[in-house]
Amino acid sequence: MSPRLKADRQARIILVLGDQLSPRIAALRHADKDRDTVLLAEVEEETKYVGHHKKKLAFVLAAMRHFASELQQDGWRVDYVMLDAPGNTGSIVGELKRAAARHQTRAILATAPGEWRLARALEDLDRSGDLDVERLDDDRFLCSVSAFASWIEGRKAPRMEHFYRHMRRKTGLLMHGDAPEGGRWNFDADNRKPPGKMPPAEGPRQFEPDSETVDVLDLVRARFPGNFGELEPFWFGVTREQAELAFEHFVSASLPHFGDYQDAMLRNDDFLFHAVVSLYLNIGLLDPLEVCRRVEAAYRQGDAPLNAAEGFVRQVIGWREYVRGIYCLKMPGYAERNQLRHQRPLPDFYWTGDTDMACIATCVRQTRDEAYAHHIQRLMITGNFALLAGVDPHAVHEWYLAVYADAVEWVELPNTLGMSQFADGGLLASKPYAASANYINRMSDYCRGCRYDARQRSGADACPFNFLYWDFLARHRRRLKGNPRLAPLYRTWDRMDAGEKRAVRSSAARFLKRLAG
Ligand code: FAD
Ligand code: DLZ
Ligand code: SF4
Fold this sequence. Notes:
Helix 2 links the parallel strand 1 and strand 2. The N terminus is likely disordered. By secondary structure, the protein is mainly alpha-helical. The strands form 2 sheets. The protein has a 5-stranded parallel beta sheet, with helices on both faces. It has a two-stranded antiparallel ribbon with strand order 6-7. Ligand DLZ binds next to helix 3 and helix 4.
């Protein structure tokens, strides 16, 4: 065989997906710049497997285009397929086949896709024998799937807190020798200040769209007119440089207060002191270890208190890695879990915001405008309501996967199905994240001026979160009564007089009937 033919045969297509936009992604690190071709493909299947928010579509596509330009400038040969390119097959597998034919090779090198759906499609393609698809581990994560499997093995209750301590030791982040910095692993109890005396927050750094992004905005406007959400103003960063600027802005402007007000919610402030960087982390524009090291440095230089630095690091090396591990080990069965057998369709107001519950209306409005809500809004407002009302967890999952700019299934699904809807029967959360208006009223200003009364438990003016909360506990008593963390609540319920209990349950029944339309 001639050397030329041999060289041709070894040239590979390097697949880079829309959430793998890092020059250090495994497939690029193992590629040969002189011989291989990098493929990025905008495809209908990825833009439509769920009805993505318009801002999310624009964000991913604009970031893909900018990343392709950067690779080209860096000397890579890039084959970029636009969404409306003639002959676009509409799927990653189809575009791999077309690219393989164009470049006369059958060798594909990919980094393992984050979502099970696409990982399976690449596996099937390889098995079909049509192309050879080599898949490398995605080592942007600090804990590999096999390391997570070893950690979880034999543990009866594999709680995040224990995993987090393991990750602190492994990374050395916020450690003082073998001990946690400040003598405690977790400053969660110092992350719950209500917003009453909160200083004003600057919010995230925003960017003007350049001409390349403007083209993408035009594309999204034309191709996805019916999708949920406001496309403009579009201010997300779409390059690594912008993502880094956004993160630095967070460190200087918001991190000092991030810890104190992590759980607070305000009607007229969509971001408070949150980082708004999950979208950048999840598509590869920021690196999780780097951002944690930067936050640790801010703490060590005296620019941020320990409860803020620890709170941030816990979310990134703790929760983020933990839910990814659970997803990788438990899929595909995990997506089908519905331990509480909830069947109710998702209420329309999750899309329209048209409800007189001020907390939900605010979170949906914000989600529609910004493709963003912070953790407590997702968990304790929209998630909490769906749990209390008994909404089908799969419908809830599809909503979360669609509406947030940071939504990728490996992180969204365990957070929704496990943490928020308790559909995995307590694998992720030791008790359901169910709360009455008491919590919402303490942590937000939503209840002030709401048509409902946060203090009433039953009757026409009572806050729905109150009667639904007790109704939820009563409905699921058989399943939940053995949970020691819920025992005090059942004791409170048992102490309520029979008339009060009847009133609570009939308020819930009336409300749920109306919800069903
Ligand atoms: P900050 O509050 O500033 O936190 C810093 C970083 O920590 C985040 O950027 C994120 O990377 C990480 N983080 C925080 N909490 C979590 C968590 N529970 N799981 C994983 N990482 C976390 N996060 C996503 O990235 N994508 C999702 O699709 C997603 N869906 C969610 C669905 C539900 C029902 C719930 C309750 C949470 C979900 N989260 C999701 C987690 C969390 O809400 C977001 O990561 C966070 O709100 C992002 O905003 P931020 O960057 O301002 O985060
Ligand atoms: C989210 C997304 C969207 C909207 N579009 C594309 C696309 O056109 N091409 C692509 O390669 N990736 C896209 N993505 C990200 C993928 O959905 C993501 O890579 C998979 O879900 C695997 O995690
Ligand atoms: Fe939400 Fe109830 Fe408060 Fe109204 S009173 S904002 S419905 S928690």
